Amino acid sequence: MNLLSFRYFKILAQYENVTKASNYLRISQPSLSNMLLKLENELGYQLFDRVVKRISINENGKIFLKYVDSIFKELTNAQNELDEYNNNFGWQLSLATNNCIFTSLWMTDFLCKNPNVKVKEQIISGKAMMDSLISGELDFTITNFKIDNELLTSQLIGIKEYVIIVSKNNPLSNYDALSFYELSQEPFVATPSEARILRFIDDISNKANIIPKIIFEGETMLLLDAAKTLNALMVHVNFCLPNPCEFHAINLTDSFAKMEIYLTWNVNRYKNNACRMFLSHMENYFG
After folding, report:
1. pLDDT digit string (tens) for 65-101?
2. Interval 174-189 mean pLDDT
3. Boundaries of each HTH lysR-type domain copy (predicted)?
């Protein structure tokens, strides 16, 4: 047994097709079949069931695949640590979120305290987040939902309350607290709807089972001006609020008017200097 045979086995398990696997590996089908037979003979167990020209990984194969995956994960961790030690790669981290406001909570403070660290942030969909965390393309994700996977740790780092932002010229600015149901017929402004970006108005409306009256969609910089000009409302969270001299925040009395924030990472991946500093910072910041 060797790493090459383990790699061939992984690809066979992925495709469950000798032709497709051999094409991917760029080796002949007989060579791949002979390798598999040799591996099974060394283990003493059949890893795939053969049906005519098809193969299907069996329970023996699934058990063996878990350990092969573990071997390659550890090799990746070893490579990452060697790169960090020899090439000073340990000062970079990558993260993804479904709304940039989550990172505005800590980003400036973290970078000021750790000037050697380089952070790459992106916005991607939930499924892509999970896949990228497992593959190692991402170090962390920050989202309003928990990512459930046995290879990942998803930790609740905060609970924030929704508020409604109105212009000081709006008659509703006389209220300090209302129910979202009482405001459901009011005109709202919001960012454009995108599948990969969390819109606060969609989250709270789904929880309330209400279809809001959105009269304007635009970029973030335009929304506050639109809210004033159109005398409209905007759903926000109770941090990073706009200028209190111009806008008023109405607290929501509904029990569902809250948003959980989760930090998720791959527990099996090697964590470089930047990642360790980041986890420590998040623990202190939200702890």
Report:
1. 988 888 877 777 677 677 766 665 558 889 999 988 8
2. 96
3. 1-58
What's the Cα-to-Cα distance from 31 to each of 24, 106, 151, rounded to whole Å? Answer: 13, 54, 33
> Any residues with CB less than 8 A from the CB of 107 and at least 6 apart, and which?
119, 121
Class of domain 3-86: mainly alpha
Q: Does the domain at residues 88-157+260-286 carry the CATH identifier 3.40.190.10?
A: yes
CATH superfamily of 159-259: Periplasmic binding protein-like II (3.40.190.10)
- Write down the H helix ranges in 88-174: 101-104, 107-113, 126-135
Q: What residue segments make up the domains of the chain, in order of their start?
A: 3-86, 88-157+260-286, 159-259
| Pair 191, 220: CB distance under 8 Å | yes
Distance CA 98, CA 102 (A): 8
Number of neighbouring beta carbons within 10 Å of residue 90: 21
Residue 248 CA to residue 176 CA, distance in Å, equals: 8
